[in-house]
Structure formats: C-alpha cells, structure tokens
Design brief:
Layout (H helix, E strand, L loop, with lengths): L1 E3 L3 E3 L9 H12 L11 H4 E2 L4 E2 L4 H15 L6 H17 L6 H19 L9 H4 L1 H11 L8 H11 L8 H22 L9
Antiparallel strand pairs: 1-2, 3-4
Length: 204
Amino acid sequence: LQLRGSNKAYLPPAQFTMTKDEKDLFLKVLKEVRVPDGYSSNISRRVRLHDRSIGGLKSHDSHILMQQLIPLAIRRSLPKNVIEPLIELSNFFRQLCSKVNRATDLQYIKDRIAITLCHLEKIFPPSFFDIMEHLPIHLADEALLGGSIQFRWMYPIERYLLTLKQYVRNRARPEGSIAKGYLMEECRNFCAQYLRGYPDLGSF
C-alpha cells in the first residue's frame, strides 16, 4: 500500500498487469497471426480489439497460444522478470509435446519445471495456484512412463467428434442422426473404393 494525498491508501497495479496500450500491442500481434491450414483455427478472428478481449478458443487453440504465440506476443507488453518465467513455462510444454523425447530431455524439464513454478510464485498471488498450476510437476513423469504425448492426447478425438456432430440432421434424435450419417459415409467410401477399379462405371 502507498499513502497519497489526504492519507488515502493506494494499491498500485501488480507487475503482471497490462496497461491499455500494452493490451493493444499484445492483441495486435495475435490479430495479425497467420498460421498454416489445419495448424489451428483462425485465431485472428477470435481477437476483438474494440473491447480488448479474446473469446471462442478451442482447447487446441489454447495449446498453440501457450507453446508458440504467447512467448512472441508478450515480449513488449510485460516486464522482463514476468516474461522470462512465462517463456520457460512455454518451453516446458513445447519440449514435453515434441515428437522425439529422450529420457535425459524429460528428466531435465522435470527438474526445471519446479524452478519455473517457484519463479511464478514470486509474481502471481497465491490464489492463482490451484491444482492445474501444480499439474506440470507430474507431466514429465507421465511422459517417461507412458511415452510420447501426441499418441495419448484428446485432440484427434475432439476433431472426430466435430465430424460426428456434422452428421446431425434431426436435433431431437442426435444419436440416430449420427449413426445414419456414419453409415452413409461408410457406404459411400466403400462404393468409391469398389468402383475405382472399373473405369467404365466410374462415371456413374
């Protein structure tokens, strides 16, 4: 607390708080992001500059933000002592989710993530640290036991669920619509494979 005129108490903003200009700078970086087709959704459409907010992100979009975009976007928007632990956290998840991981690499990030979380505890209030902030401590051990992350995460299943949702025509009976749409898709694929060897019938 700081005392100002007339002995009024003033609580200055935390070191991780962005000003309006810093928020505009951060969001403009995300607004101008262009990613390859299929890499993520169009994140630039999720950014609203007029009210300085981001909404409608899927779980995979948050994954891309954490690993790739936030370390770039925050470099000019926050103090150095705040940026460095956040970049360390992003590097941890990037290494954890890489296609090739050696046991020595996982052991290194396992030792390093504890130090990174200690750095974050110096910046953010205790209410910020719930079970989700504690979870990275165990992720490296899980990778050592279970193998590569991309064979165990839920993103392919979530994408396929979107495909199944598109089969729904009767919202009163979604399960029946999905079953019927899936059956029609399988029949179409079977017929396409069957007629591929008959050039005379392919025109039908």
